[in-house]
Amino acid sequence: MVRKCLPSLLPLTAHGSRLTIFLLTAFCLLPSVVHAQVTVDKTVATVNNGSLATPDVITYSDLVWQLALQRDTPIDPPGSRDLNAALKLIEDQRLVLLEAKKLPGNEPTTEEVKKRRDELAREFGSAAVLQQRMTRVGLTSEQLDEILRERIEMDNYIDFRFRAFVLISEKDIVAYYNEVYGRMRNTDHIVPTLAQARDEIERKLTEERIASQIDTFIDDLRDRAEIVVLSPV
Fold it and tell me: pTM of this prediction?
């Protein structure tokens, strides 16, 4: 990977696994199609996985929209730490999206986009609260729908590439049960049986394994990509 900073950024900090970021907070993927609609902005970085004749552009508006769609994240004004975390996240998302575009038949329907928008509104407590955040950062309804379309494309790609191939063995389930629930014996806690806990353990181990695979996958994408940071945030 070629990564350049002119000048250098503050440390790019992202908390939690990439899977958590993608599945829980990444209603925030910001499509390049939106960039031309920004009239007053600055280019923060460019991303190219080697297949693009013109690198994908990340603007300051992209970062602010990212933060606006994260519940409880300050945007008046956004802090440098949050902006840099948003930049790192968007870089990763752009690289994964380029891979997702290769998957045929991956275009979401209008109904899927509406469902995802309703889910996002519930995350904020109401559609009115979401709209207030969008208005404060100049994010239109049409732009949000495009963001959600690309978010769904990414989710579909993750399911296709990772989730369908994760196998959790009975040995893995039993080992986890003995390690975690075994410590709860002889305490005041009610300890479920292995049969009662099996489904929850399998779900947890599946998500952990997918998270690890995604981390490795994104690291490989970054190693092969050219990411140029043009402006500090």
Answer: 0.76
